[in-house]
Write a structure and sequence with these properties.
elongated; alpha+beta; about 15% strand; single chain; five-stranded antiparallel beta sheet; about 270 residues
Length: about 270
């Protein structure tokens, strides 16, 4: 009688484990796709913001400062620093907003910074950069806005956006506006997008386990189940559909709110 009893028991657990594995696999795939898509969207949004802010700077003043980046107590630097500090304060996630320039000797140096002196995002004016990403060189040479990161330097770890500041007369790149977002804040924002997926997975698995517990408790034998138990599967499917629909609606709402907030930031 041993094999006759073990086989049905194993088959019952197999019917329980396989759906859970399928659900977990589907949720893991959904989370991965969401992270990739959201990371791409956030990077594109950061580049758009950097390009828009770079176009508002006075390129003539930036060009004058770039011609002599080591000039001490420059009025132009003070004014540009105040502008960058205002831009940084307008968006809390900006760790720093700074201008960098390519020097004649091939090095890349900080021109001015919008972060207070002594803060993690502060860059000493005129000091060469210790880490120069290839994306930044691409922006300085070709004037193509882009993002890079995570980039680690002496100030910390960042996701950075680069946008050229173009001269009004000959359209050459006089400097590059750099917006840094702390890597931990970037990934924290990405993780916050995965809450609905995790809750949906737990809710669906809980529905399956509760259904199995009820079926085992009230129907120990296949021919002895009460009539109302026949509708248990329908109720489970309805509950699972409700959970998934609610999760999708919530994510759609958050996406709409984020899009509206980004539009208002651009207007501001």
């Amino acid at each position: 009688t041993g094999p006759d009893r073990v086989a049905p028991y194993g088959a019952r657990w197999l019917r329980l484990v396989i759906p859970i594995l399928i659900i977990l696999t589907a949720i893991a795939a959904a989370v991965y796709v969401t992270v990739v898509v959201e990371d791409h969207r956030l990077r594109a949004e950061l580049v758009d913001e950097a390009s828009m802010l770079a176009s508002t700077l006075n390129s003539d003043s930036v060009d004058q400062l770039a011609a002599n980046p080591n000039q001490p107590d420059s009025i132009i630097r003070s004014r540009l620093s105040a502008v960058l500090m205002t831009l940084r304060a307008s968006v809390p996630r900006y760790a720093s907003v700074r201008l960098v320039v390519a020097l004649p000797d091939g090095t890349v140096a900080h021109l001015t910074s919008g972060a207070p002196a002594g803060s993690p995002g502060y860059a000493i004016p005129g000091q060469p950069m210790t880490t120069v990403p290839q994306e930044l060189i691409q922006t300085l040479e070709r004037g193509e806005p882009t993002t890079a990161g995570p980039v680690t330097d002496s100030r910390g770890s960042w996701i950075s956006a680069y946008a050229p500041v173009v001269a009004r007369t000959d359209q050459r790149v006089v400097a590059t506006l750099v917006i840094d977002v702390a890597t931990r804040d970037w990934y924290r924002e990405l993780r916050s997008k995965q809450g609905p997926h995790a809750l949906s997975a737990l809710a669906v698995i809980l529905i399956i386990l509760v259904g199995r517990t009820i079926r085992t408790s009230f129907a120990p034998q296949p021919n002895a189940s009460p009539r109302w138990l026949r509708y248990l599967l329908v109720l489970q499917l309805a509950a699972g559909g409700l959970v998934l629909t609610t999760s999708a609606a919530w994510m759609g709402h958050r996406s709409q709110v984020a899009t509206m907030a980004a539009s208002f930031r651009k207007i501001a």
